[in-house]
Amino acid sequence: MPSGKIIKALSGFYYVLHDGEIYQCRGRGNFRKKKVSPLVGDIVEFKAENHDEGYILSIENRKNEFVRPPIANVDQAMIVTSAIHPEFNALLLDRFLVLVEEKRIEPFIVISKMDQLDDHQTHLMESYKQLYEKIGYPVVLSAVDDTESMDQIQSHLANRTTVIAGQSGVGKSSLLNSIDPRLSIDTDEISVSLGRGKHTTRHVELYEISNGLVADTPGFSSLEFGELELEQLPECFPEFVAVQNECKFRGCLHHKEPKCGVKAAVEANEIADNRYQHYLQFLDEIQNRKPRY
Question: Quick count: other Cβ atoms within 10 Å of Cβ 84?
Answer without folding.
Answer: 16
